[in-house]
Amino acid sequence: MADYKWHFGNNNDGDEEGFNDNNIIGFENDRHRFVAREGIQNILDAKDERKKGEPAVAEFKLIKVPIADAIPNIDEYRQILEECIKTNSDDKAQFFFKNALKTIDKKEIRILMMSDYATGGVTGIDAEENSSWYNLIRKKGTSAPQGNVGGTFGVGKHASFACSGLRTVLYNTVNKEGQSAFIWKSIFASHKISGNKKRAAGYYCSFNEKKSQVDGFDGSDTTKPKFLDRKQVGTDICILDFILPDKGTKHLWHQELKFTAMNEYFIAIYEDKLKVIFKDETTSKEIKHHLDSGNIKEEMERLYKRTKTETGKQVKIPPINYPLLDAFIDPSKKVEEKIDVLGNCKLYIKIKEDYPKQVGRMRKPKMLVFKEKDNNLSKNYSALFICDNDQGNKHLLKMEDPKHSEWNPEYTTNIFKYSSIIRKLNSFIYSELRKLNEKVSDNTFDIDMGNLFFEDKDEKELESDGVKPEDGEHNKGLELDVDETPWQDLPKMIKKKPNKRKKKKIQEEEQGIIPGDDPDLIATIGGKTDEPSPPGPGPGPTPGPGPIEVPGKLDGDKKLKKLNKSQYEFRCFQISGSNQFKLVLKTKNDQECDISFFARGLDNDKNENLNLLKAFDSSSNESVEISNNKMENVSTTPDPKVFNIEFSQNRRFAVEIELFV
Prior knowledge:
Layout: E1 4-10, H1 22-28, H2 31-45, E2 56-66, H3 67-70, H4 74-87, H5 91-104, E3 108-117, H6 132-137, H7 159-162, E4 168-174, E5 180-187, E6 191-193, E7 196-208, E8 213-215, E9 217-218, E10 234-240, H8 253-270, E11 274-280, E12 287-291, H9 296-309, H10 322-329, E13 333-339, E14 343-351, E15 358-363, E16 367-373, E17 381-387, H11 390-398, H12 415-440, H13 459-464, H14 508-511, E18 568-574, E19 580-587, E20 591-603, E21 606-609, E22 612-617, E23 622-623, E24 626-627, E25 630-636, E26 641-647, E27 655-660
Parallel strand pairs: 2-11, 15-17
Antiparallel strand pairs: 1-7, 2-3, 3-10, 4-5, 4-10, 5-7, 5-9, 6-7, 7-8, 11-12, 13-14, 14-17, 15-16, 18-19, 19-26, 20-21, 20-25, 20-27, 22-23, 22-26, 24-25
């Protein structure tokens, strides 16, 4: 007969497992957000479809129980902690295990119970492998899909261990198949027991020696703690020695979890798919409150307004996603469109003066994956993209990282295919925002560093340009057409075929060209598509249209070459009604360069010199050296940099630049 004990499997000469388990420490930087986010996601996945019309219920309850009731066979447990101290010399491990010994010497222990209702419980209790129960308890980084599949019991299950001061969790379930089970699990580090090397993860359980199998306790076993009194179908995840938020930087535990629930699952709550309850039974006055379809809008709006007026408080309310909920409830515009294999997707846009110009992205089961700033619409707004059909959810899930915080094609086995999907998804959002600009445009410009260089051509447009969608930079959505002008009221210059003529010998003393230079790098104003024009007549402080002198040898030793246009990308925006512009520039590599300016095609398709007065690096607010009508000694990087520049001319230009290195 199997006996009950703390069982840590033999290492069998495998790799030693250190204390710093990546699946746990990845959640430690924001442990309370992740435990609520991952826990609620699994609860929505486990919703019992037979209970239509009822929301899935997530209950977070903090209790205190006697240490002997929380941890069985505590002497054996203590011995394992002591062995871990001997085996693991890492400072973090030493601190943890010594503190754990102090904790189990206390009379009571704090436990957070994360319980669900109107769910199906964890199924497959009797299965030896490949079931929800087996994957929850035994497998590392593996999941068995259930229900809505917002996520599964994969890496996210480790968020509970990140919130435990003992790295110990008690699981208890009653499932719709009529089965019940419970089991304790700890994740420590490799250690030795009686000279035998042991694995990091262990269980208090019934161990089947013949099958080398960990078996959970039957729900009726007398070993079951008194505080586990579940009568309904569902699951309890009990986090032993629950780590409370830091009082100096965080709110109370139930407030932190509440912020997460409303910010990540506001649509599921609003549509009555989810109800979240918070209880604290460790205080003199019991605390109990909830979020449901009847109060979610009011609660989020109230907190959002408070964030706008808070001043001088040590711990402030985090950003509240009320604008996204408002866009869903009362949109200024709603669009539905079929996007490739994602199927029908929806975009809700709400224009409002104090909204933060953000687009939230959400999939089934109405979980917010991420949000990002987007300035394609000049007015303040909030927008919410939702893909909640099964087919689209399946494809988006493939692109999601373990923390469910981004969609990245590199997580898939077909990067080309999923890059195309993301490009079409983004193009849909950006184009709908731009359409609204036609109604609300006020000739002002905002710079979105994230999307500034985004190429939103669809597949057919790319193919018509002779570019395969899966090739080159277009696949990443970063290529910028260097002939593109940001001004819609200026005609695009017609490219002229260059005259074939014999190259003249260029004297080094006159032009500063180093013998052996690549002819493609020899600078002529306007780039490869423009021909120089003679200086224009007439008086004035600045010269008329004509070529700019090619930078060359300066002070006898500075030799510069024109940088090919394929090596940099830029946009230049006028600050409405002034002679000031913003230049946003990035280069493929770190460069130290000079930058010259001219206006393209405003006078009979000829270039016009611009008289540069001032230039500042906006990140440091330091002035940039100006000489010979150029910005000199400018440091550029692959990350966009913004410069504030000022010309003597006060009118609209299609500004072009050339870089010399």
